Amino acid sequence: MRFIHIADLHLDTPLVGLKNNRTIIKKRRAEQKQVIKDIVKMIKDEEIPVLIIAGDVFEQKFVEKKTIEYLINLFQLIPNTTILITPGNHDPLIKNSPYKTFAWPENVHIFDSTISKVSVGDVDFYGYGFENYELQSNELDDFEVDDASKLNVLVTHANLNGDSKKYNDINAKSLAQFDYVALGHIHLQKLTDSIVYPGSLLSCGFDELGEHGMVIGNFEKGNVTYEFRNMESKHYNILEVDVTDCKIASDVVDKLELGEDIYRIVLKGARNIDVKEVREAIFALEKSVCEVRDETHLPYNLEEIAAQKTLKGIFTKKMLKELEDFPNQKELIMKAIEITYNSL
Fold first, then answer.
1. Which one in 63, 67, 122, 259 has a CA-CA gap of 20 to 30 Å to 271?
2. Where do the structural domains in the chain lie, given as residue ranges?
């Protein structure tokens, strides 16, 4: 029996890492919806009988009505595919959850917080999920599958071998009776024998670098096989640029090799240019740049100057203390140092 396993779609998430570029946020949300459409088309074309979605399909606090309707309409296109959804900590089965307030197609099964079973052919799927934003569960304690001779699958949104006390911590030792464990919650791939995190379907931020997508495989007793398949056409990318030898903003731009990825650009090295002008020049390229971080330093040894018994030394010592106390104001403080030095 062929299957697809996805998790952590986070539809309508605020995408805070992209907050400086609203255009990219709109494009990313469109890409999130498109990739689901692509998966549904694949399921329909290849007649895949099972789709597992292991939690955090959407953001409960931000999800829009049109997004839920879009998802439901897609699922109606594959009525012969059993869709198994376990709510996660971002889309729990609370009172006003779309899982309760919308009519879902008959082929969609949504697990609650009590472990239950759905049988598809010769495979028994067990699952449970969040009914609140936190879950301390003992559902697997002393649990036994109904028929060990069948192929048994567990579907849940969980923190494997974790100690969070709130995100469904489960121990790998309790999973031995399952032939495949379909998990969600961790946004990076973890493909370990029969216990699988596919990672987020599409990356949701700069803390999720690398490929993202789905797991596709085949259930056969004693021979469960699967592989990861990348579904991203563009990735989050952190690009560091040494500006030490740059004299004007265009010198920095000339160092960039920007493709179609989503970028955070980090300026490094000794600064001899105006960072504001650099930002303006980079954003003028109209590439998918969300942020230009300034991690440069003035072309001076501040600690050495601060040790001097001079007005400049006293001022520098004070500014270093400001940097220590207010790290979030680094750019403003460094600009003050630069202006003061230029006036001395």
1. 259
2. 2-230, 236-343
Q: Using an 8 Å Cβ cutoff, are 203 and 232 in contact?
A: yes
Alpha-carbon separation of residue 199 from 15, 138, 229 (angstroms): 17, 24, 11
pLDDT in tens, 91-115: 999 999 999 999 999 999 999 999 9
Helix (H), strand (E) at residue 229: strand 225-230
* DSSP character at residue 9: -
The distance of Cα 74 from the centroid of its chain, to the nearest Å, equals: 23
Q: CA-CA distance, 28 to 13, in Å (whole number)?
A: 10
Residue 20 has what pLDDT?
A: 66
Q: For residue 81, give the nearest of 36, 53, 49 by alpha carbon.
A: 49
d(CA 316, CA 311): 9
Q: Which CATH architecture has domain 2-230?
A: 4-Layer Sandwich (3.60)
Residues 33-56: tens digit of each pLDDT = 999 999 999 999 999 999 999 999
Both tokens assigned to 323: 């940097």
